[in-house]
User: Fold these one by one.
Assistant:
Number 1:
Amino acid sequence: MRTQVAIIGAGPSGLLLGQLLAKHGIDNVILERQTGEYVLGRIRAGVIEKGAADLLDEAGCGTRMHREGLIHDGIEISFGGARHRINFKQLIGKSVIVYGQTEITRDLMDGRSAIGSQTIYEAEDVSLHDIGTDKPKVRYSKGGQVHEIECDFIAGCDGFHGVSRKSIPTDVLKNFERVYPFGWLGILVDKPPVSDELIYANHDRGFALCSMRSPTRSRLYIQCRLDDKVEDWSDEAFYEELKRRLDDEAIKRLQPGPSIEKSIAPLRSFVAEPMRHGRLFLAGDAAHIVPPTGAKGLNLAASDVYYLWQALVDFYKKKSSAGIDAYSARALSRVWKAERFSWWMTSQLHRFPESSGFDQKIQRSELEYLVSSQAAMTALAENYVGLPY
Ligand code: APR
Ligand code: PHB
């Protein structure tokens, strides 16, 4: 088989890139290790920046997001028993859309089926070859048979554990990483949200977040220990702990209900540089991970895809390699800014096991400064709604 761009991974990055390329007449095939149902079973954050929303529109897959997504003009930060609103709309005239990442993936999959582009699910043992030449190849097996795809470029959109990043020689790739000493225990529940906007809570017992998927479905998180096990957290214990970390008004509005999903996620900051090697480009979680505080994962994947899509369109339509050559530096410049913001949000809102009395006083004074300074709130707003592409 031959295609112009072979895309590894049918997560949000691979599907969005595939859709944008196809819309501009660039042929592509997606290889995904799992089944479509498995990919749709993953629950992830749900805050969409304007830039990512525009890109979904460009891909022709934004209709349901605009219909069902919730426009949020701000967030609330809670500490010391009180809540403080950061009003994005007033500060910088922008908003975000709260819409589940699972739904975005579904919309992109539907869009791909509608235009008839090919996704090969359950592709096993994917391997990349000749990436240093202008005739790279991808091999995979399916149904006991080995297949080969010849292509011009490979887009590694296969997430943190994928094969693409590992195909770049170790003496070329540099990894930067911070692993945080706690996790997030999250539940999904069919009860209305605690507040109209997201509440990010800093408490002596640890961080909590009240988020949502719709007017009738809540997504709730509490900071937990890294060695905690989901089975050891009953719904009752979860709500007890969440209540300890929220303000009185939030506790009054919290409607506990049976969880329909419960999981623990570790928190990590990670960047691999460069994001290109020869004819292989990394995009999304394959190249970088952010802790979920600030919900930048999908949004960063979208900006990578934007730069890569533009670079490939320039290559095929204008015969220019300039975008391809600039891809890694352009993408990384925005990646590091989002890494900084996610690290900062995480640092200000969580309880670190090793933190001293001094560290805790500094954290509290940073939060007090934040909610009392127009400049500080504007800086948060600008980063939360998303820096320009
Ligand atoms: N071969 C083929 N597919 C693979 C391989 C492989 N060797 N390894 C991983 N994959 C697939 C995974 O099964 C997954 O469906 O690649 C896909 C990667 O998807 P994500 O992990 O979602 O990564 P990405 O698309 O970059 O996501 C960006 O969305 O899902 C969130 O947390 C993610 O916020 C981040 C954003
Ligand atoms: C979520 O709704 O899952 C969510 C929202 C905001 C975050 C992280 C996760 O910062």
Note: The CA atoms of residues 55 and 306 lie 7 Å apart.
Number 2:
Amino acid sequence: MSGGVIAIDGPSASGKSSTARAVAETLGFAHLDSGSLYRGVTLVALREGARRGLRGAAAVADLSPEVILRSAEDRGLMLQSDGAGFAAYLEGEPAEDALRSADVTANVSAVAAIPVVREWVNTRLRAMVRAGQDVVVDGRDIGTVVFPDADLKIFLTASPEARAGRRISQRGIAVVPEHLDAETQALAARDHADSTREVAPLRAAPDAVHLDTTRMDFSEQVRFIVDRARPIFFPE
Ligand code: DC
């Protein structure tokens, strides 16, 4: 028996992961952050590259996808249940902090554009749902490619400035204009790479509910999704 699926897609820093986790906690579902698997594969490529004397982008460009994915398996890249959802583990250790490093963030779009990497990630996501797990999955192509039959699809957006401001605040530093400009540009570059790639570009599914959170606070956006999910999963 397959589990239920709520798909949440949207651009970088639109608040998908934190929203998905809160929705999952409220409904008793598990949160699956597909981006953490792309980040995990990127971290593996950087570590495998470093072992071979390749640094940063050179590691991603020079290693074959097969070598990267074999290294991901050998190093035990996986999602393990952490109560409310799943967290990425690598080499037997929780990897969440390393997955958010600047080096991984700078290289993840290139790794996520490799078709066999996408298949590797999608196979893992689908296996969890096939095992009967009810999930809230966030990413870029969840409602279009990974789970086109998802029970509920949300496309989450916010203005580039709002997203940049939230990203800076998460790092615990003041939101000053030059940081805001630099972050807005970095996000725009990642959005462009993610929306224009050939395989599974960032796109809203035709049947997705659009939610612009620019002027919403966190609890409002969580409530918006939970209110749409309840009648689907828990009809009266
Ligand atoms: O959501 P995030 O910032 O952790 O995602 C990291 C990268 O992975 C981002 O560049 C887009 C990519 N990604 C993707 O291509 N497809 C997904 N389903 C999830 C993430």
Note: The first helix runs from residue 16 to 27.
Number 3:
Amino acid sequence: MCGIVGYIGERDVPSILLVGLERLSYRGYDSSGIAVLDHNELSFWKKLGKLHALSDELGKLTIKGDIGIGHTRWATHGIPSEENAHPHLGPKKKVAVVHNGIIENYLILKEKLQKQGMLFRSETDTEVISHLIEFFLKDSLEDAIRNTIKELSGAFALAIISETEPDKIIVCRKGSPLIIGIGKNENFIASDINAIIPHTKQMIHLDDNEMAIIEKNKVTIKTFNGEIVNKEVQTITWDPVAAEKSGYDHFMLKEIYEQPTVVRNIISKLLVDGKFSFNHLKLSRQELNNVNRFIIQACGTSWHAGLVMKYLLEKYARVITDVDISSEFRYRHKVNGINEIVIALSQSGETADTLACLREAKSRFYKVLSFVNSKNSSMDRESDSVIYTYAGQEIGVASTKNFIAQLVSTYIFTLYLSQIRWTLTEEEIKAKLDELKKIPDYIEKILSETEKIKKIALKYHKCKSYLFIGRGVNYPSALEGSLKLKEISYIHATGYPAGELKHGPLALIDENMPVVCIAPEAETYEKMISNIEEVRARKGKTIVIATEGNTAIHHCADDVIYIPEVSEDLTPILAAIPMQLLAYYTAINLGCDVDQPRNLAKSVTVE
Ligand code: AGP
């Protein structure tokens, strides 16, 4: 996703902007640029490719100025190119704009402005904003911006500077996040906290339809209609050092190895002195007792966690549960039932599709419970109730530790529901919690056998297509394992319910097709063995994830990865670890950019 940074103060503007953009680079980008105001002289630089291209150019220059904005672009409208990189300037180059989001009516606006004789330099939607501001620029920059945003439809986070008023940055938020950092005789803006945290822990989160006029010693926040808004300055408590690699080659690997600690942390937060810690929920016990249906909606890995949650909510809490991909949920003309609760799952808390569904559900008077990792995110602030997944900051674009965190936190919540709905006895709940507490050790055991997974990754890394199969709670595991592989190694991979093989995918199987088979001890183990045999009979290569001690599996597996014995409900947690490592080492073998895979972003804040 695009990244926005801005600075006003006495320090070196270009270096603060570049460091900020670097700290946002994990969001994914294809080009970058900055604009700097030196009194009333506006300069700008933009480069295609990685940030070092921009910093190399800026390093040759002496740039003066005390205000600047910067941007890393993740292309939506217009190919990755220098012309399409931000900032974009108005026709007279008096105004510079950086933007995160999509202006849905930009073509109409562009045609109108072209009829006024304005020329455009790029193919982007963003450029209509800089042109509109200059078009409206009569008296005050603020008024010109206010008139401009009235014309825009779609989502935008904007940062704007202008020669005409060289003592301020003006920012606007509608649908894409923007944060203000409060310093001493300096102020900062950014798309997310990461870019600001090295300078200050005092933050203001803008909400939708709000704008801010940011001067060196003053921040004024208004609604788009111009009413003054008093916002709380929040102090960020978490440690910025945690956002470093700590000796690992990649954030993704660091985050894979953090998973035992993450699980221990979640248990300590959601189970205090052996008791469930959900009293903060604004959903009453009666509402949870009477709920007839949960509708889970999420994207990507979070959707996979939702699929696992469905199995366990229905199995233990005995509640009918639907699971929707967010971008589909909005448009399926759902029939409202009674006593229904929408559940949103999101690591970032900013995913546009999931956030849009949350808002839609609330507009239709649903209660929304969200499992969110990022505190102060939009979903954190807009949900009726939030359960944090306590994964810590997840930098790698491929979600690993937060997937495990989602599985663990939703499992604990399911057991809590089973307690208040009397669908499990106290003894049954205690036994399940006691087993859950062993999971961190089991993950550590799997992580201690990474060398074997490295060898398997090397053996198959040149294959052009993989299949992942599983049954029951491990059908979502198959989906997640295939997503991990494809998103960081760019190898085509598909996750499938194992029982569906003979309804089509079996035609794909040959000696060049590795099939990852998730076959732990489970209710459908024998059926999984039949499916593995179907693959073998067609010369497919079988990489089987099996339960420790199962030696018979070797007769139908080309390669075996063992996981410790646990109840079937918890196998998606353990099975995920070897598949994360398989994806990671395959991507390394192929020389891929593991933390910032091409075309992808950590937080997809556009629909
Ligand atoms: C997962 O590895 C991907 N990065 C992606 O599918 C991600 O899970 C999805 O974009 C949802 O993100 P969220 O959890 O922040 O909403």
Note: The longest helix spans residues 401-420.
